[in-house]
């Protein structure tokens, strides 16, 4: 595999407590790596610092200690090789779907004619041809996610960071989006770091699933290689015996953490 | 369905009817109070001195528009309003953006902004008259001091409330600091300027008229001042009527412009933090 596309080395993230003097350690000594072209999911109970890890990988957040390597190079600024799909709405509401997709190329100073042509092409690829002039509030949640996907992929990032991108969607739309994501991914095999609290989603999509411990001081507990054949259909693969086996094995590790996390949230 | 729509139209028509009734009753009361019909001629004259007579007021307004005497005055008042609105908005936008993005500057300026905003700005009119003369400029200056704060506070708040996710997303898409200003902060702030459009235009209008009233040679405020000097209460009320009508017209135009510029906003009244 050679040099990993993205590597966390003993990353620790501590935040000043809201109260003032105290300190909250969200992530402690997290080390793991994602190979080139690999699809890796991080699963963990809610509030375990998954998003923190992703923000560190994006270069939006500097770790308190430890470092992130991108293709062997330490990350110091915003990760220019990575595209980021946020969990929350991240589209610019004052821009049309097309203008949202063109934004990244505009920032890079690509000629407007080329920018528009490529944006049209990408909107068509995510199934939104004909919706170019719509504003985000005129699109459904699933459509907005597609726009966000086109907005990220048009820049052709080597690494794709995804923070529960489909968690706000209904289950049918979600499975459609997951299949589309797999198709797009299969076309040019980017390295993907996918965050979810949904174990089924993680298994259906990934090459490897990393289970995180409950917060605070989150760290990877275990890794599971997902040896399901590709191409996959996320809805159908859930019925296969191997899927159920993997699900059981990972759930055994995850369950106690989920209960721990639940207990903490009730305190 | 059709019946429901019909009902809605009916209630709407009824609403208009009652609204018209209110104004008719007011005018009727005013008429009876100032004409010698129910009351003696002496007391009618007395009340007419203070309140004017509705028919005389309407005649004044009618004559203004027929003879064309009002147009240059109206034009000057509207011109002052427009200039004050434009200058105040641009100034408010620039300063708002600057202070919102520079914590040091905003910490330094905060007490002065608060003090200036708390000060009754009308009191500056005599000073502006001394500085800028009795022409258009002194009215514009007064209007600017009023408009500026409306726009400034809106922009300041707007920039503070730019969605951190949208901001992070733009950074991940490769936006530099300058591009963030141009593509994120500025459009986000302008949307707040537009939402303060009604108040800002109203303020600009107030600045123009009050400025004229306190010293000028032209404008509707000047007409009112002149008439008041000779106790011509009918003309004073006529001027007020014309001003009210044009304030309504300005508000209508602003509503149309707003609808066009904010197409990207959700249609319902729900607020969306940007």
Write the layout of secondary structure elements.
The complex is a heterodimer of chains A (267) and B (274).
Chain A lengths: L5 E11 L6 E12 L4 E5 L6 H9 L6 E6 L2 E2 L7 E4 L11 H11 L4 H14 L15 H13 L5 E5 L7 H18 L2 E6 L2 H7 L2 E5 L7 E6 L8 H4 L3 H26 L1
Parallel strand pairs in A: 3-8, 3-9, 6-7, 7-8
Antiparallel strand pairs in A: 1-2, 1-4, 4-5, 9-10
Helix pairs in contact in A: 2-3, 2-4, 3-4, 6-8
Chain B lengths: L1 H33 L6 H11 L2 H14 L2 H32 L1 H16 L6 H8 L3 H25 L3 H9 L4 H19 L1 H18 L5 H10 L3 H29 L13
Helix pairs in contact in B: 3-12, 4-5, 4-7, 4-10, 4-11, 6-7, 7-9, 7-10, 10-11, 10-12, 11-12
Descriptive overview:
The complex is a heterodimer of chains A (267) and B (274). Chain A has helices spanning 50-58, 97-107, 112-125, 141-153, 171-188, 199-205, 234-237, 241-266; strands at 6-16, 23-34, 39-43, 65-70, 73-74, 82-85, 159-163, 191-196, 208-212, 220-225. Chain A has 267 residues and is of the alpha/beta class. Chain A has two domains: 1-81 and 158-235, Rossmann fold (3-Layer(aba) Sandwich), CATH 3.40.50.300; 88-156, no CATH class. In chain A, the strands form two sheets. Chain A has a six-stranded mixed beta sheet with strand order 6-7-8-3-9-10, sandwiched between helices. In chain A, strand 9 and strand 10 (220-225) form a beta hairpin. Chain A is globular, with a radius of gyration of 19 Å. The model of chain A has no long low-confidence stretch (mean pLDDT 88). Chain B is mainly α and 274 residues long. Chain B has two domains: 1-51; 53-261, MetI-like fold (Orthogonal Bundle). Chain B is 82% helix and 0% strand. Chain B contains twelve helices and no strands. Chain B has helices spanning 2-34, 41-51, 54-67, 70-101, 103-118, 125-132, 136-160, 164-172, 177-195, 197-214, 220-229, 233-261. Chain B is elongated, with a radius of gyration of 24 Å. Classes of the chains: A alpha/beta (267), B mainly alpha (274). Chain A binds chain B through residues 55, 58, 60, 78-80, 82-84, 86, 88-96, 103-104, 106-108, 135-137, 151-152, 155, and chain B through 163, 165-166, 168-176, 179, 183-184, 187-188, 191, 263-266, 272, 274.
